Amino acid sequence: MKSSPRAALFFLLPSLIFVGLFSIFPIFESFRLSFYRLILTLPWLGQRIVGLENYSDLLSDPVARDSIGTTLIFIAVTIPLELLFGLGIALVLNHGFRGRGLLRAVVLIPWAVPTVVSSQMWRFIFNDRYGLVNFLLFGADTARYIAPLADPYLAMISIMAAEIWKTTPFAALIILAGLQGISDDLYEAASIDGATSWQKFRHITLPLLKPALLLAVLFRTIDALRVFDLVYVMTQGGPADTTNVLQFYGYKKTFAEGMVGYGSAIAVTVFFMSLLLSLAYLHAFKTSRLQDRTP
Amino acid sequence: MKRITALVFFSTGIALYCLVPFLWFVLTSLKSNAELEAIPPVLIPSFHLAFYRSALQQYGLLHYVVNSAIVAASATMVTIAIGSLAAYAIARFNLKWTNFYLFLLLAISMFPQIAIAGPVWSILDRLELLNTYQGLVAAYIALSLPLAIWILTTFFRAVPGEIEEAALLDGCSRIQALYKIVLPLAAPGIFTAALLVFIYAWNEFFFALIIMTDPDVQTLPVGIALFPGEYTMPWGEIAAASTIATIPLILLTLVFQRGIVRGLSAGAVKG
Lengths: 295, 271
What we know:
By secondary structure, chain A is mainly α. Helices cover 74% and strands 1% of the residues of chain A.
């Protein structure tokens, strides 16, 4: 088929307009604004270029530093647990049994629940008066009931629990697709050689599953870095900023306080964290695929 | 035998893990006020519809449902139309820069929302599109195009090129080839992409929150997140609204689970 570049451009143009206007341009604009002092509530100050001042403010702002820490802890706790649960679910779903299709459909339910709905749902489950968690812990003894979302440590744990519940299905699906790509012959050969189930899992399943696992980690990390809905609904970043993840802090600075310059510096920081993490994973992904091809 | 027992045990555990939290919220929405406040909690509600009535009448739930339906449906239609054009060019022309474009889209889909939120808001402000359906729909089109184009490209590449070549030789234009040959043959892919874009637009909260500040145009997620109530939360009504927002999605997911699973892993596993 003959294909002219001009025809290709014609087909791509509509999508380029939207993506250019609402994704590519905004990234550069955020960069630019992060070098300015621009505060919407103080319009008479105008838009003054201040160089790296927003970034040095960011480094000396204890709330911002805590926010970076909170975000990293959130990622470090939720991703391994999501992967572990996801792997467990995928291993069960990979067996052929009656009702497997039904179970796979049920597993998709947390994925299908809108994040805002799941946020309100978990906020209710952790409620200090009617919450299921309180009842399961203390029965009808209301005097001992606690308010997890008002406690600096429990609030973070509650948000993590809600995130893990909602996103495990996605991890399970990617891992399941990886499992289904592993040939049965390998397991049969191992059985003939007298391998135990654990040996088969350790030496066949895990190594061959590495690309799928890395991919799940990549997608989940990128997504965890932008956690917002749960924090907005369940704690508003509190108590005492203990759940103040970066995306929420950036939102608060830019949209609630109108500090566009400083907010843009936070935005650019999140952008680079996301970029670095994806590049690191993509690199690991490529090397693991190359190893598979050269035995 | 031991294996079957283990499978039943784990399957039950997984099903409970996935079902119980949401089921608890659905049951809550069907309680009466007295049952909601009862300690120990009432497990089986008396299937009152009072909270639904109040959510609809006092909190204007229907209005949010209509806004969400308008926004999600328009975003889906435009995204699929624009996305099919782009995916067709990427799948068929196979030029160096169209392939680069595909990877650029993957990179864009990984942007954290906050990294673009401020400028997106300013652009819509300048275009006077804040608090309009068009403004939110435009943002959703841009944000869901990467996913749609990836899925559509995968499906278009699976359609054999020979039929089209014959049609092109007979004087059929590229657009006609896309419209009359590729689209019908890739219908399952289009449906999958449309479904995922619709679910995305129906669930999206962050951009809806910053673009729609006027309650008249707010979508369901914003309405549910900002449910009024300072000191006593109207939990029954929130649960009712949440159930209404979620049931259509669960039905879609259960009916079309095969397509969704394939769509989600389309770009993912092939790498």
